[in-house]
């Protein structure tokens, strides 16, 4: 059997140009599948991971996004006075009403502006969302027009970095800090003082209120308390659920698109693989006859041709993963369909998706390899030996 | 025996391999068409836009509204022949999947400015006289089985509460690009309720739509509108309808670009598949090609032979591909609307898309023939004759 395997491997080398074409095609298809995986991983990372399990988001009843929602100041006071909200070490309640607005910013060098989320909040928001941390500069001084800019926004819209100014709502805002947020949506936001932002935009209601629970189990009691208070016409949501709902359209869309195309391509790749392997069998008819004459069993011949096909599949899968590793450095920005705002996310390679890709490459090379392997095994010895050729 | 018959005879030597290759190309054609259709669906709004309309919105963001008072000031400007306004209503039907674009509009002027929404005179009158009335597009009506007189209940996401609208008319698109999934409801009805529940934001509009006398005036009217409201509490940003729609497309640029890259990669796959088959065919025939050359065939003849074979296989694949594409696009469209509701429409297969994919594939077939042609050119007759394979 080892002789057969060596024979098979050497054949791959001998027929290197055809093999390269097949492996290239297979690798391309696998890479497309992997990219789809990586896209949805990246989106999940950016959106779903934005929510913390302990956090609860309050929106006005009926509103599906923070932008469309509204919470009045008196409602915010009522909520902050409720029992069952986590407190900071300074005995301050972690319930922060925020104003969310969209502004148009022009990307460096681009003509059409993109919508960017500006979040008016309180500096305790960094405690509420521990994944957000400053990498440069400091937090804004309360009551000033200073802002902290998400790393993705800083990279694409504000090349000046700290100390540069941004014009929003007829006022100049000074950038004093740059924040990273572990790839979550907060990296695509601008944070500033809520009261300043409300004054700038002439709003006297907040958009949403995020509060932290002392334990995830406290959700029910806070939901009941808010539901029973007729002054508060608010809906209570786990922050994670909110972000999951926002990402549903995007991820469904990308998955649908991706998997439709992968399916079609997989079919094409199977055809390509079958063709190459049939070619491999046809050009080695005489050799196969020889091997049979030497006493190798048809089953062994079958196995060796299938293994050859699987080998090509593995090679293609590995190439695809190599490509995927390179793609990890790509950051995409797109409009989140649910909020019409700019969202940057990074293509993320996970072990599961790498495994899935290898599995995919192997299975299509298997499907493509079986029919030619059967033909090889079934070749009649005598006529095979008679075929002209090496 | 002409070159043509030679090509056909050659093809029939390996029917199985040729069939596989043709199917491979057919799959690529299918995928290419689906991609182009998807990308074009994105640009549907751009394609439907009219050159003599401008959109004016708040300079900071679409989510911030403009005062209603701007209407009269815009209407008196030079070159402006009509003004109307709209608000994004953002209601959902039953659940979040039941989404379709709804605009709260001033009925008479909106229908006047959007001549491509054709609606019968009685239905128009009925809409004008009923505050709770609405007008829906033909596709939307077909999707939910709504007809004139039905009551549609929407849950407001921006304007809270349940809203009831009576269908007073169904509009048809005047041309193929017109979006037939809109729902138009009355701004005055919406504003009335907003005055009660959210008086701060009442009396404002999302954006103005301005009709100009001549598309060439777009630049000057844009500048004069923006200058008029500069340094006010609500500055405007005015652009042509096409640019406005492009703004939305540009924001999803990453997805569109990756689809475009995919389309190019696909053509690469066609090239690989076809070149592979041709190289195999030529390798097998090394000896007989050499014989043909001794008989007086020039290398150029043999290249024509290979190119003809490539074109024929590609042609077969193309025909097959188109035959698959037409039903597949329908299935794809149905799948998308089943999973995403109304969110992504306009997945229609245009004949220009088909034509594009066919011509690109045939061009690629010629390129693919270059690989085996090089082999033929390089081969020495004497050595090839000695070849036993």
Structural description of this entry:
The complex is a heterodimer of chains A (390) and B (389). Chain A has 390 residues and is of the alpha+beta class. Chain A has helices at residues 2-14, 16-47, 73-80, 125-128, 151-156, 194-200, 219-228, 239-283, 285-294, 298-327, 351-378, 381-386; strands spanning 55-60, 71-72, 95-106, 113-121, 133-137, 146-150, 165-168, 171-180, 189-193, 205-206, 208-212, 234-238, 331-336, 341-346. Chain A has two domains: 2-48 and 247-339 and 346-386, no CATH class; 62-232, no CATH class. The radius of gyration of chain A is 30 Å and the shape is elongated. The mean pLDDT of chain A is 85. In chain B, helix 2 runs antiparallel to helix 11 (253-284), helix 11 packs antiparallel against helix 13 (299-340) and helix 13 packs antiparallel against helix 14. The longest helix of chain B is centred in the last third of the chain and has 42 residues, at 299-340. Chain B starts with a helix and ends with a helix. The model of chain B has no long low-confidence stretch (mean pLDDT 85). In chain B, the strands form two sheets. In chain B, strands 1, 3, 4, 5, 6, 7, 8, 9, 10, 12 and 13 form an eleven-stranded mixed sheet that branches. In chain B, strands 2-11 form a two-stranded antiparallel sheet. Classes of the chains: A alpha+beta (390), B alpha+beta (389). At the A-B interface, helix 2, strand 3, strand 4, helix 8 and strand 13 of A face helix 2, helix 10, helix 11 and helix 13 of B.
């Amino acid at each position: 059997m080892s002789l057969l395997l060596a024979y098979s491997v050497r054949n791959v080398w001998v027929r290197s140009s055809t093999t390269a074409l097949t492996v290239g095609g297979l690798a391309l298809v696998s890479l497309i599948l992997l990219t789809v995986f990586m896209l949805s991983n990246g989106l999940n990372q950016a959106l779903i991971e934005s929510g913390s399990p302990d956090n609860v988001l309050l929106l006005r009843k009926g509103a599906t996004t923070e932008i469309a929602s509204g919470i009045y100041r008196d409602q915010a006071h009522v909520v902050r006075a409720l029992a069952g909200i986590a407190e900071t070490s300074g005995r301050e309640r972690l319930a922060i009403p925020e104003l969310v607005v969209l502004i148009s910013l022009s990307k460096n060098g681009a003509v059409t502006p993109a919508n960017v989320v500006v979040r008016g909040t309180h500096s305790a928001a960094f405690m509420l969302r521990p994944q957000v941390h400053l990498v440069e500069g400091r937090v804004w001084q309360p009551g000033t027009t200073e802002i902290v800019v998400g790393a993705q926004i800083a990279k694409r819209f504000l090349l000046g970095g700290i100390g540069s100014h941004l014009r929003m709502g007829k006022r100049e805002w000074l950038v004093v800090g740059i924040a990273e947020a572990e790839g979550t949506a907060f990296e695509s936001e601008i944070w500033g003082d809520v009261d300043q932002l409300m004054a700038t935009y002439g709003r006297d209601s907040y958009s949403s209120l995020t509060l932290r629970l002392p334990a995830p189990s406290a959700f029910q009691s806070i939901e009941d308390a808010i539901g029973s208070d007729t002054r508060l016409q608010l809906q209570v949501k786990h922050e994670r659920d909110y972000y999951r709902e926002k990402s549903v359209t995007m991820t469904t869309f990308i998955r649908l698109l991706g998997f439709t195309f992968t399916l079609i391509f997989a079919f094409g790749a199977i055809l390509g693989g079958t063709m190459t392997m049939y070619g491999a069998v046809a050009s080695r008819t005489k050799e196969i006859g020889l091997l049979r004459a030497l006493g190798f069993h048809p089953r062994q011949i079958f196995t060796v041709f299938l293994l050859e096909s699987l080998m090509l599949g593995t090679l293609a899968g590995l190439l695809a993963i190599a490509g995927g590793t390179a793609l990890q450095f790509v950051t995409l920005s797109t409009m989140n369909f649910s909020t019409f705002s700019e969202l940057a996310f990074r293509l993320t390679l996970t072990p599961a998706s790498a495994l899935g890709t290898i599995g995919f490459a192997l299975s299509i090379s298997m499907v493509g390899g079986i029919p030619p392997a059967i033909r090889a095994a079934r070749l009649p010895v005598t006529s095979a030996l008679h075929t002209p050729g090496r | 025996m002409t070159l043509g018959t030679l090509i056909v005879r050659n093809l029939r030597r390996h029917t199985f391999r040729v069939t596989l290759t043709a199917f491979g190309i057919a799959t690529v054609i299918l995928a290419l068409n689906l991609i182009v259709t998807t990308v074009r669906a994105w640009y549907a709004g751009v394609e439907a836009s009219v050159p003599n309309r401008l959109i004016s919105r708040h300079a900071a963001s679409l989510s911030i509204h403009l005062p209603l008072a701007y209407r009269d000031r815009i209407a008196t400007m030079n070159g402006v022949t009509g003004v109307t306004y709209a608000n994004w209503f953002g209601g959902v039907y039953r659940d979040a999947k039941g989404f379709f674009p709804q605009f709260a509009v001033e009925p008479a002027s909106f229908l006047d400015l959007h001549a491509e929404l054709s609606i019968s005179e009685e239905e128009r009158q009925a809409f004008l006289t009923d505050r709770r009335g609405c007008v829906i597009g033909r596709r939307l009506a077909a999707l939910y089985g709504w007809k004139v007189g039905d009551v549609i209940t929407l849950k407001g996401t921006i304007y809270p509460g349940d809203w009831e609208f009576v269908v007073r008319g169904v509009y048809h698109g005047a041309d193929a690009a017109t979006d037939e999934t809109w729902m138009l409801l009355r701004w005055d009805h919406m504003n009335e309720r907003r005055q009660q529940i959210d008086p701060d934001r009442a009396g404002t509009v999302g954006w103005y739509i301005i009709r100009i006398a001549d598309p060439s005036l777009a630049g000057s009217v844009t500048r004069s509108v923006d200058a008029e409201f500069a340094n006010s509490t609500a500055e405007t940003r005015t652009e042509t309808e096409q640019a406005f729609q492009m703004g939305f497309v540009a924001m999803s640029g990453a997805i569109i670009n990756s689809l475009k890259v995919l389309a190019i990669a696909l053509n690469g796959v066609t090239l690989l598949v076809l070149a592979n088959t041709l190289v195999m065919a030529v390798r097998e025939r090394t000896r007989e090609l050499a014989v043909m050359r001794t008989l007086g065939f020039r290398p150029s003849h043999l290249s024509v032979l290979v190119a003809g074979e490539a074109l024929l296989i590609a042609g077969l694949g193309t025909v097959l591909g188109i035959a698959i594409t037409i039903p597949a696009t329908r299935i794809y469209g149905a799948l998308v609307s089943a999973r995403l509701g109304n969110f992504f429409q306009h997945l229609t297969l245009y004949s220009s898309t088909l034509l594009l994919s066919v011509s690109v594939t045939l061009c690629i077939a010629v390129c693919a023939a270059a690989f085996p042609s090089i082999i033929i050119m390089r081969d020495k007759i004497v050595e090839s004759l000695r070849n036993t394979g």
